[in-house]
């Protein structure tokens, strides 16, 4: 066995050796990143002199360096916040929390605020987030200066730079976006100092993640013909890489702080390993999608851009292999040495951190150089684009047929990954239950799997393809994701499976179980899951969506499209869960009241469908009215057909929900009757005895 992996107590010099290696790895990663950036840029000539309006070498080379520094600082910020929210022990819980809080000498109670003071590890993690966010803010400012000079084509020393830079910030879309990112960095930098608990940390994490959305909307993704796929792929790539790199750097810094409890750090390393595995899958899938979009075919691999893609892929695979080896050789042994973590962790940990950090620095540099290089396929429109291309960014699909509805695909990387991940996670929880001898109904597993498959088709199959050009297809997509998919997901009881499959944490940290239960039992969760509120949201939001500019916004922007899918799927889930749900959550009314609520909601839904069928006013006329389709009905006839679909398709799930409620009602009555029979057998029928006594007394009186 490798002596460095021995479970025996290491020599006294081992901790110092481990710290020395990590101290060298952190700046070494930055040096390797800059070196890889320079080498890649020299090879691709991405930052060479420009023929017209050259801003000078300081701007041309300062911009990619500032970009590298900004992305690394953002990664560390997000990594620290994610660890604080989901991983590190000692985050502290409210007294009203639903999970029991163990007593710990490291956690002190604050009587004034009635909350637990955060532990050492949580406080240290938030301190790292604050420093990283401050660096992110200053590097974002430097990037904004260099990007402005590069765009307007003047050096920073030019007397007219200031005035033109202000114009860049206020008139040019990229300038507005970078300015918004700078504002977000400043706010996050302030919040990381002010927040003192996991609730504030998760809102800060959400705000910092908005920067990834803005970054995905810029660069090559912004002007690509496959805009939606490019933006989704870039967003997933940025998030996966940032969490993977940033969280590992934070763990290394936590280890360097000698005040950090070693046993808690061992727990953090084990939990991070699972996150890193998902990040690897996320980066791999999104990287392949981005390469397919930008290379334009196998010939693209022979270009300078393609060579950089191959280099980045090779480094990424090496990084994945090292991470897998560390998983097998180091992380799996942490459970065996947890009791002696104070002495064993330094020996085990440096191999996990130092080498990976160095390689991550190199791959980050190559990624920045790749981002500054023009791809072979820049997604430019043809010389004579069709009306459909000008509106949607993609060519008009062929006339729909029954077969094409099943065979035409346009993969949405974001929702495809979420659907596959949903199936994987659900099945892992089921297998975890079976491994410990517990059972789980196979019908629930099948229901979840079918729901995810339908959701994948709705977001990437024929409904998604034709939903961009036909109102009737869009309404089909809407009805399925809001009324069909939620029924399958509700019957799968994912919250119940989560509670049984993941044990509660005992170290004052919040994992998926704690966060989900906290949201369900919060006043916001109880409000939105209330049956009446869920019904109003389900029916009312449809009217609000289609008869306001929200509909056109959802059709014309990728962000609006994503928000539409998320909102109506959740609205359908809340409504179905209020009627037929198995999971804990809302205070469900009696079965008779549920049927009345269902009928009232569906009557309102039918009214919406009839209104669409009889109207002669076209919704989103600048979208569907200018599509230029040589096939199919006119836009207004197609919209009226969509109204019929809204009415007709809505009836099928309504009948299914009514049947399920009736069956649940019958089973509930059967269970109540059986309970009463058992009580009568054990204790006698008191009600019947009282009734007989009353009859006997009446007979005596007569």
Structure commentary:
The protein is mainly α. The chain folds into 2 domains: 21-91 and 105-371, no CATH class; 387-667, no CATH class. The protein has helices at 13-44, 57-86, 120-152, 161-171, 173-194, 198-216, 220-223, 227-256, 262-295, 304-337, 341-371, 387-392, 402-407, 413-435, 442-460, 462-467, 471-491, 494-501, 512-521, 523-529, 531-546, 550-556, 558-580, 591-614, 621-624, 635-683, 686-701; strands at 109-110, 115-116. The chain has a two-stranded antiparallel sheet. Strand 1 (109-110) and strand 2 form a beta hairpin. Helix 3 (120-152) packs antiparallel against helix 5 (173-194). The longest helix has 49 residues, at 635-683. The radius of gyration is 29 Å and the shape is globular. Residues 1-12, 94-116 and 339-344 have low confidence and may be disordered.
Number of helices: 27
**What is the succession of H and E elements?**
HHEEHHHHHHHHHHHHHHHHHHHHHHHHH
Number of domains: 2
Structural class: mainly alpha
Short synopsis of the structure:
75% of the residues lie in helices and 1% in strands. The chain is mainly α and 702 residues long. It folds into two domains: 21-91 and 105-371, no CATH class; 387-667, no CATH class.
What keyword list fits this structure?
disordered N terminus, 702 residues, 2 domains, mainly alpha, 27 helices, two-stranded antiparallel sheet
